Amino acid sequence: MKTLAHRNIPITIIGGGIHGTSIALRLLREMPTAKRHLAILDRHPKPLTQWRCKTERQGMTFLRSPAVHHITPDALGIVEYAERHNRTSELAPPYAQPSTQLFWDFCKDTLSSVGAGFPCSPGSQIHPIKHGIYHQFEVAKLRWDKGAGKFPFRLISTDNQGFRSRCVILAIGADDCAYVPPEFTQWQRQFPERVIHASEFSVLKEFETSPAKIVVVGGGLTAGTLAKSLSEDGHDVALIARKPLKTEQFDFPPVWLGPKALAEFTSETNFQQRYEIIQQNRGEGSITPDIMEALVDAPNIKRYPETCIRNILTAKECPSAQRLQIETTRDTITDVSRVILATGYQFNLHRYGFLRELITQHQIPLVRGLPRLDDDLQLHPIQNLFGTGTIAQLQIGPAAGNIAGASLAYERLREKLHSQL
Ligand SMILES: Cc1cc2nc3c(=O)[nH]c(=O)nc-3n(C[C@H](O)[C@H](O)[C@H](O)COP(=O)(O)OP(=O)(O)OC[C@H]3O[C@@H](n4cnc5c(N)ncnc54)[C@H](O)[C@@H]3O)c2cc1C
User: Fold this and answer.
1) Ligand 1 pocket residue status of 402, Cβ below 6 Å
2) Residue among 40, 43, 282 whose CB has most ligand 1 atoms within 8 A, to mutate
3) What is the Å distance from ligand 1's center to 117 Cα?
C-alpha cells in the first residue's frame, strides 16, 4: 500500500467502521474521483473489524435494524445481494433484518469493489493495493495549525508516521468509552478477572471448561444477546437489570429518522436539553422480541428485573476456586464464575487521547462529553474538522450512532466534502 507519510490528503476519515466506510462510499458514489483524494484510517488492518468483533463476541446472529440500513445509499442493496446469492432466508421477519453474516458478506463485497482494503474477489478490475484508500494507521495525535496553508491538519500515528490533511472526519465510534456504573468500580478492582465489561468478554473464548454460573448485568440488547448465547453454551445465567426488562424491535423510535422530529430537535437551542431528549428516547435499553422470547423459554436463564447488586464477595464455600457471591436486592446468588457488565457506553471526547491536546488548546465546548457540533457537523471552533456517529448526537439526535445515522450525517456533510475536492 502506498504509504501516507509526508503526503497531503484532502479528506481523511479517522475510523473505518460502519460510519467511516458509509461516508466514504457515499462520497465515492457521487464523486468517483474522490478515490485519489481520500484516506480512511483505522487501528485495525481491515475495515469494519470492530463491528465484526463486537457482533461475534456476543454471539449476535441477526441485526436489530432493517435491511435498508447498511453502508451504501442503495436501500435495496442487501436484499438484492441476498436474492443474487440465494440467501433471502437470512432476512428475518418482520423488517427483513439481515443476519450478521449476510450483512458482513455484503459489506465485504461492496468494499472490495471500490478497493477499500479487502482482498479482491477473483476477476475484479480494481486492485486494492494500487487503489486502496484504507490504511492501518492508529492516530496518536491530531494537530490543527490554524492558518498553515491548505492542509492545516497534521496526523501522527502511534509509530510516528505523519501526514497532512485539509479536512478530517472523526468516525471513531464509542468503543473507547465503555461505561462501568460507579458502584462496580471497586468490585472490578477487587476481582479484575471476574467482574468485566461486556466489551472485554467474548462468548467465543473458552473461558470455562465446564458449565458455570454467570451473572449478566444490563437490560439492553447486549445483555439479552449475551445471556442467550451463554445459556445456549450450557451455562446458567442470571440476568440482572435495574429497570423492568423492555421489549422493543428498535433501540430508538423510528420517527427519529424523519425530517419532522429532527427539525424539532435542532430547533432546540439548549444543547443540554438536546442531551436529555436523546436520553429519553434511547432509554436504558431494550431487548428485541425474538431475543426476549429466547430468554423466557431458556430453562437455564433466570431474570431479575428491577434488581440492584448490593455486594460482590468471594463465595465462602469455595474461596480457592474464586467463585463469587452476589448479593442483590432480591436474593443472594452463589457460586458465580463471572459478572459481565453489559452496561453500555457513555461517549466522552476526553477519552480519545489523540484529541486531548486539540480539545484543550482550542477549548472545544462539550456538553456531557459530547461536542457541540455546528449544523454542518463541524467541531466548532475548528474549521473542517467534522464528526459522524455517536459524536454527532447533539445534531443528529438519537439515531446518530446507529447505521442509519451515517446517512443522516452524510446529508449534512455533503456540501462541505464536495467543496474539498
Ligand atoms: C453488538 C452491536 C450490535 C449493533 N447492532 C446494530 C444494528 O443492528 N443496527 C444499528 O443501526 N446499529 C447497531 N449497533 C450500533 C452501531 O451501528 C454500531 O456500534 C456501529 O459499529 C457504529 O459504527 P461506528 O463507525 O460509529 O463505530 P465503530 O464500528 O466502533 O468504528 C469506529 C472505528 O474507529 C477506529 N478508531 C477509533 N479511534 C481511532 C484512532 N485513534 N486511530 C485509528 N482508528 C481509530 C476504531 O478502530 C473503529 O474501527 C450495534 C452495536 C453493537 C455494539
Assistant:
1) yes
2) 43
3) 18
Percentage of the chain modeled with pLDDT above 90: 84
Among 48-57, 142-151, 177-186, the range scoring the smallest mean pLDDT is 142-151
Ligand 1 pocket mutation pick from 175, 355, 370 by most atoms within 8 angstroms of CB? 175
Q: Which of 265, 303, 283, 287 is nearest to 392 (CA)?
A: 265
Can you name the residues that pair with 19 across neighbouring β-strands?
none
Same topology for domains 8-176+346-418 and 179-251+286-341, yes or no?
Answer: yes
Could you read off the pLDDT of 276-288 as tens digits, one per residue?
999 999 877 999 9
Angle at 371 between CA 366 and CA 373, to 5 degrees: 130
Nearest CA to ligand 1 atom 41: 139
Other C-beta atoms within 10 Å of 180: how many? 16
Count Cβ atoms within 10 A of the Cβ of residue 111 and give its class: 0-12 exposed, 13-18 middle, 19 or more buried.
buried
What CATH number is given for 8-176+346-418 in this structure?
A: 3.50.50.60
Question: Strand pairing partners for 97?
Answer: 92
Q: For a ligand 1 pocket test, name from 12, 19, 169 the mutation site with the most ligand atoms within 8 angstroms of its C-beta.
A: 19
Distance from C-alpha of 116 to C-alpha of 97, rounded to nearest angstrom: 25
Cβ of 171 closer than 6 Å to ligand 1, yes or no, is: yes
304 contacts 245 by C-beta, under 8 angstroms: no
- Closest residue by Cα to atom 20, ligand 1, is 18
The finding on whether 70 has its CB within 6 A of some atom of ligand 1 is no
Helix, strand, coil percentages in the chain from 3-state DSSP, rounded to 5: 40, 20, 40
Distance of CA 211 from the midpoint of ligand 1 (Å): 31
Cα 174 to middle of ligand 1, angstroms: 7
> What are the strands, taking DSSP E only, across 210-249?
213-217, 236-240
Ligand 1 and 407: CB distance under 6 A: no
> Which residues, including other chains, have CB under 8 Å from residue 23's CB and lie 6 or more apart?
13, 169, 171, 388, 406, 409, 410, 413, 417
**Residue nearest (by alpha carbon) to ligand 1 atom 17:** 402
Q: Where are the domains of the chain?
A: 8-176+346-418, 179-251+286-341
CATH 3.50.50.60 correct for 179-251+286-341 = yes
Residue 204's pLDDT band, with cuts at 50, 70 and 90, is confident
